[in-house]
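hiii so um. not sure if this is the right channel but i have a protein structure encoded as tokens and i wanna go backwards to a sequence. like what aa goes where. can anyone help
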């Protein structure tokens, strides 16, 4: 692959890191993009990559691979610059140390796969969707998460939320999520009952496995220590009762789980910031599986498709429900769930799967 294509993907990711408050990752990626064009140590590492550097979030994969070494204690020369382990960035020293580390250890760094993260604060966005569905159907929710990673967001109802002036969830929960809710927010008094919860991922992570825990932590951005500690708390919470996860592609898994739709519950297919990592074929097949199941939905066996995904330059929470196939744009949100603006919109009919495919964006915010 041409170095210019990879460098461009790194530059775009640097901009997103800047916009989302990570100066460390912004500056590392700007320098890495220049190094790729100059044929330096980062280029030596990424030159063996052959894929979609933007949609695969190659820049974040590289940063996560190095961060994992920092967390595990095998990169002490970098640890003093990483706040996640008690360090403090110093410029340009941290950039020099990063390049020295890559130059020395490039053969050991693994760039396979995509970012594995379950940003728990995204549950503050998904929560509004679950409240909306509980109010709409008045039924327990049967949760099916796509791209579940370690399934941390499957456990949304075990977390305590501080949502500006409102609160939701068990007060004694060790997982405390703060998010600013604005606009026409859902009614926090709506009762939400989870009938069952399951997830799938092509490579799910096990919260009881130390290597998988390290992978989850490594994709938290080291400057944003509140996010890092929130992931740690959510992992510890999940270790008490690990969610049921299946290693399988989304369309294959859904064919089994959506046929037939069980009565007395609202089946909710949901996902957050994972659609871009699927192939075009899997996106189409996933939409086909959902829409076919939707055609069989009834008032006693409803189906919902809830997704927090980027479209163009913004992050949206959308929900489509069957019977009827009505789609609603429920909210606009900051990618990590820190701020959610709830909308008062009328449902409309359409082909949401086709819209989703056409709007697939290389928007890496993990």
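sure thing!! here u go:
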């Amino acid at each position: 692959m041409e170095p210019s294509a990879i460098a461009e993907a790194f530059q775009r990711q640097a901009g997103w890191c800047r916009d989302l408050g990570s100066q460390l990752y912004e500056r590392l990626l700007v320098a890495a993009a220049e190094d790729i064009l100059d044929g330096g140590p980062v280029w030596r590492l990424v030159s063996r990559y052959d894929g979609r550097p933007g949609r695969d979030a190659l820049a974040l994969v590289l940063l996560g691979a190095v961060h994992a070494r920092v967390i595990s204690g095998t990169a002490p020369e970098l640890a003093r610059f990483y706040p996640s382990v008690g360090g403090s960035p110093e410029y340009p020293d941290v950039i020099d140390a990063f390049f020295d580390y890559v130059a020395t250890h490039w053969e050991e760094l693994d760039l396979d796969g995509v970012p594995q993260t379950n940003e728990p604060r995204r549950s503050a966005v998904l929560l509004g969707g679950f409240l909306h569905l509980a109010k709409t159907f008045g039924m327990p929710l049967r949760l099916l998460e796509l791209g579940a990673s370690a399934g941390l967001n499957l456990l949304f109802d075990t977390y305590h939320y501080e949502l500006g002036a409102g609160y939701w969830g068990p007060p004694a929960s060790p997982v405390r999520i703060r998010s600013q809710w604005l606009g026409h927010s859902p009614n926090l008094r709506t009762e939400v009952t989870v009938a069952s919860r399951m997830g799938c991922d092509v490579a799910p992570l096990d919260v009881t496995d130390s290597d998988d825990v390290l992978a989850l932590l490594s994709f938290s951005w080291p400057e944003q220590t509140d996010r890092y500690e929130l992931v740690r708390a959510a992992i510890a919470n999940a270790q008490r009762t690990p969610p049921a996860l299946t290693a399988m592609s989304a369309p294959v898994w859904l064919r089994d789980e959506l046929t037939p739709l069980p009565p007395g519950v609202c089946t909710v297919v949901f996902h957050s910031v994972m659609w871009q990592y699927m192939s075009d074929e899997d996106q189409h097949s996933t939409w086909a599986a959902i829409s076919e199941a939707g055609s069989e939905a009834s008032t006693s066996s409803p189906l919902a498709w809830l997704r927090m995904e980027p479209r163009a330059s913004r992050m949206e929470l959308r929900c489509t429900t069957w019977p009827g196939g009505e789609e609603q744009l429920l909210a606009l949100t900051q990618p990590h769930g820190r701020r959610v603006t709830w909308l008062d919109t009328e449902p409309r009919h359409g082909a949401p799967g086709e819209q989703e495919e056409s709007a697939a964006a290389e928007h890496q915010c993990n």
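oh and The first strand starts at residue 141 and ends at 146.
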